Amino acid sequence: MIKHNSHIHELASADFSVVMMLGKPATEFDKDDIKSIIYSTQEHSDMLYVAYHDSFDVNSGLYSCLKSYTEFLKDDIDTYVARFNEIKRGAKTYFHQEMTLGYFIDLYISFLHRKFENHQDDGSLVMINSNGQEI
Length: 135
What we know:
Elements (H helix, E strand, L loop, with lengths): L8 H4 L3 H6 L9 H10 L8 E4 L12 E4 H14 L1 H12 L5 H17 L7 E4 L7
Antiparallel strand pairs: 1-2, 1-3
């Protein structure tokens, strides 16, 4: 867990002060601070929206907008951080050490990527513009 996934570019390009905190135990941080840090690692724009992959209308060629990406991201991060203790137990069980902030953030980013990349999953998402066209 101390060596973080090098394929996760969001962490590599994050603020240097964040990078210095990644090896510290996640329990040392306030949950609101963790939410802020995770949010800062992600692109967010008022021009982006999300839709369920299965909301595609073949007649119009458009998706049904679920919510803005910014709103989705904030809600999704809130839901993830609410599972803090469950994820901490998993880290202890499987890795036999304290969960680091870097591990917690890496795991969120991998869950987020899966929601947009694996369309075989129920509830998978696509990024769309305000007209419902996939980006």
